Amino acid sequence: MKFLSAILSTISGSKIVKANISMLAKYLLAIVALITFYSILFHYLMDLEGQEHSWITGFYWTLTVMSTLGFGDITFTSDIGRAFSIIVLLSGVILLLILLPFVFIKFFFAPWMDAQARSRAPRELPMDTRNHVIITNYDPVTSSLVEKLISYKKDYVVLVDELKQALELYDRNIRVAIGNIDDPKTYSNLRAQNAALIVATNSDQMNTNITLTLREEFEHLPIVTTAESPHSVDILQLAGSSRVLQLYDLLGSSLAAWTIAGDCKANVIGRYEQLVIAQAPVIGTPLVGQNLSESGIRESFGLTVVGIWERGKFIVPKPDTIIDRTSVLVFAGTEASVAKYDEVYSFYQICKVAGDPVIIVGGGRVGHAIAARFQESDIPYLIIERNRRRNEEDTHFVYGDAADIHTLEKAWFEKAPAALITSHDDATNIYLTKYLRSLRPDMQILSRASEDRNISTLHRAGADFVMSYASLGANAIFNFLMNEETLLLAEGLNFFHLQVPRSLVGKTLAQSGIREKTGCTVVAIQHKDTALINPEPNLQMENNDELILIGTYEAESAFLAEFSS
Questions:
Q1: pLDDT > 90: what percent of the chain?
Q2: What are the φ and ψ backbone dihedral angles of 269, each rounded to 5 degrees?
Q3: 481 domain-assigned
Q4: Distance between CA atoms of 463 and 258, rounded to whole angstroms?
Q5: Domain-located, residue 128
Q6: How far apart are CA 452 and CA 469, in angstroms?
Q7: Rounded to whole angstroms, how far apart are CA atoms 453 and 443?
Q8: Could you give the angle at the alpha carbon of 322 between the alpha carbons of 437 and 265, nearest 5°?
Q9: Domain with 554 in it
Q10: What value does the mean pLDDT take over residues 478-503?
């Protein structure tokens, strides 16, 4: 009943719909008038033929003839009467069988369906809506963001300006509203004054328009925008954006950080205050063949191994987990503890592959970001690019198709320690990953993914690591919402922190069973103003403490399900 009343309210509240219903009513009145006229004329002609019938019979005859039922129980005998019957029959065919359905659909059914559809995509939110996130574009980044907001029970709404897209999102159980994304009234209707965040991932020009529009009405509203062009960053900041994210640069920097650059030095991939997350390959080191307990990494360096990457698969290690030659350790500690590790292990592989360039497939924005990071670290590299218009004179470029063996030979592919595939097209990345892996089973291959659904396919194709553009952006936005600076560590691996659940207050880390039950690792505990990095298993958790954890998305979801307060 509520749904029906909402539709009727929408119908009655629209001027266009009211006009349509008025037209339909006028048409029906015209038909009724014509039927009445034909019934009167029927009596007149029947009197001429000497036949007498009641008024009800007149209406009955008119309706049977106009509707083409024509039972034949009442007929004219004169030519005039039969001509009249033909006129009634033809007008009935045109007005009742042809025009009436069309008029009904156009002026009633279609508006009713449109109103029904619009009731699923409202133009405003309830007055008491607060602390919600307004998203002005639905793309791979915001799709991942919506999933994360739902998992953390954060309210949100996706704003679109086309009814068709709104209905498609509604059918996918996405909370959606319809309105013009550059209209201040739209945001007032969505209670922007009470919102926790506005997210704009449209074009740079539209993001600027949205930001300026919002700043006219909402001076202190937090706004996060993305920028494709580096020149747009300053413009968006001047427009009033609270945070401008250059996701292509972030993606390039993240991929570069995960690259094995010819030695076993630990690469920092994330930070949280004093806490440092790093990853390090072990090939060529004495760690190969040892189990985690024998390695003595925690005892010697104060580092906690939170995971091991094996060909794209993240493993939560146990004390008896064997470290393989292809393993990449992920550990947490302080800057000083990471430096101690490097003093011992950073030189084992350097003589073997030093000087061989890393291959970057694609000279676009992501490829350039990777190259910039490599230049800062003095890592040799070559970019394979098909478009000669890009930096044709740059000696770091090899022009040609990465799927062509001759192009790969020019790029010293046979000696390259790693290859990074940066195309924005996932199908191309999958194809090249499979091809390069078939040629070099021993090399490290990293790839970007534009859509989260292609991550597993890239791993199956042979990628050691995959960094998702969508997940990176979603996490960066979510971290801003939560007042965090930490970004995505790797695809499927992330920081997150929560207040100690009530069920864990008073328990030690060993008693909690967090790692065994969820696969998450507690890397630090925020106790008052102090961050306790790599806390001991016998440390007791207190009320108002915050747990800083690392885990996969599955582990994060398991933690929220197991220990939700």
A1: 22
A2: -120, -5
A3: no
A4: 12
A5: no
A6: 8
A7: 25
A8: 65
A9: 492-563
A10: 71
